Write the structure tokens for this entry.
Amino acid sequence: MAGSSAPQTLPTPTILPLGDSGLLVRFDTDLSDAANRAAIALTLALDRTPIAGVTEVVPNLVSVLLRYEPGVGSPAAIAGELRLLLYALGDEAPQTTHWTIPIAFDGPDFEAVSAALDMTPSQFVAAHNAGSLRVLATGFAPGFVYCGLHPDELLLPRRTEVRPSVPPGSVLFAAGQTAITATEMPTGWHVIGHTDFANFDPTAEPPTRLRAGDTVTFEATP
């Protein structure tokens, strides 16, 4: 992705120290399509061109965390290498995989979500599955995946109350995104259904199937 200058479509990043062994590259403070694409692009660039002393690269929705070994990696040197990578970032489409994931829309919040969006259940399913989404990030819990961004007419805030536990394969909806759980966990998202698609296998390498930048189409099942 080398080039003479960074494309204007990529937001300007901020490099921040995080503790005594981390640097955070932040593209925005709020989720946006441009900031997420930039975070994914930097992560892929770091996969191709590792920086000496960096022990872990952790992408998030709008940022990328680099952990380094103190005494081996200098924060100033790593920041310098980062700036070179960021300067050369292009906006070419990365090598990604497309997935079709079946959903049973049978969650406890499904009808309430449809009503809150002023849609019938069938209208909501059609709108939710209308186009492909991008895997924005993985993490938070093993195999947990964020997919988005939905159009504005599907924007809905999170629940005001947290459910203490939802099972693996729960399909969650909020904040312009659909998420899938791979482990039992609490959530403040709306639970709209479930899927048999499993995104976490601790015996596999890598343990997750989906990765940031992949695209997803959801398909309703009976």
